[in-house]
Design brief:
The complex is a heterodimer of chains A (about 110) and B (about 160). With about 110 residues, chain A is of the alpha+beta class. Chain A is built from five helices and three strands. Classes of the chains: A alpha+beta (about 110), B mainly alpha (about 160). At the A-B interface, helix 2, strand 1, helix 3 and helix 5 of A face helix 1, helix 2 and strand 1 of B.
Chain lengths: ~110, ~160
């Protein structure tokens, strides 16, 4: 089932989009894994995680294991819906442009 | 129905930027898919645990059998836990495809054990459990790698 296209400014920022992309495919991911995937500093990832968390898009869980705090992130239902809608909107933009390009290519040449 | 603000946001995005965003999404999913690839020895270790438990039946010691089953259970749990910590993700390992591979593996393993029992206990063929244990190692490696490939394909597709 495809989600209804709905552009989302919060999700659209490149780092936040990548965070949502990673979390959309799994139940949860460690903060360290997400940071490694983005190739960004802790502070940068924390900032984006906070924005997504405040928007209610991701859930942040902290667990202590062998005196170390392990932070895991997961998409909420609202976050998954926002991400799916945003991806659908991006695909619609790209496919519309592809359609326009093909119409231009197939256009009647000027006399 | 999209609001005016949402439509304005989408309208402000150039097709090139949208394509780059989709490419970044695909890149993230591929990165995650590569990350879940277990090391070469991982499925072999599962196979050795299962194969060891089966091959041990050749010795005909109930104590050793109980220990090998316990080692199999604890070893499998430890391997799964370690792999999840290594990858740093929790995911649904069982969907329709991976469940079918797992069910096939369990059925094949059960058939193998039943056949070894029949050969050894009914026909008196020595070494049947040992051969079944060796086959169980190959079976675990093949089904493990197959499951990995299905999981990777699912992650790459962003599902």
């Amino acid at each position: 089932m495809s989600a209804a296209a709905c552009f989302d400014e919060i999700v659209h920022a490149p780092n936040r989009l990548q965070i949502c992309a990673m979390l959309s495919a799994v139940d949860s991911a460690d903060f360290a894994t997400v940071r490694e995937g983005l190739g960004a500093a802790d502070s940068v990832v924390s900032k984006h995680v906070r924005v997504l968390h405040e928007a209610g898009y991701i859930e942040v869980r902290k667990a202590t294991c062998a005196s170390r705090v392990r932070t895991s992130l997961s998409l909420t239902e609202a976050g998954r819906a926002a991400y799916d809608g945003h991806v659908a909107a991006l695909r619609a933009i790209v496919s519309n442009e592809a359609f326009r390009s093909s119409v231009r290519r197939r256009g009647v040449p000027a006399e | 129905m999209a609001s005016d603000e949402e439509r304005d946001g989408a309208a402000a995005i150039a097709p090139g930027e949208a394509a780059r965003a989709i490419s970044a999404i695909d890149g993230s999913c591929s990165w995650l898919a590569d990350r879940i690839i277990a090391p070469g020895w991982y499925h072999l270790a599962f196979g050795l645990l299962a194969g060891g438990a089966i091959a041990e039946a050749e010795i005909r010691s109930w104590v050793l059998f109980a220990w090998s089953v316990a080692a199999y259970a604890v070893g499998c749990g430890a391997l799964l836990w370690w792999n999840q910590r290594r990858a740093g993700v929790e995911m649904r390992y069982f969907d329709a495809c991976t469940r079918a591979v797992f069910a096939g593996h369990v059925l094949a393993l059960s058939g193998l054990i039943a056949f070894a029992c029949w050969l050894d206990l009914d026909r008196g063929v020595r070494g049947a459990f040992l051969a079944a244990g060796v086959l169980a190692v190959s079976l675990a490696v093949v089904s493990g790698r197959w499951t990995d490939a299905l999981l990777r394909a699912r992650l790459r597709a962003g599902r």
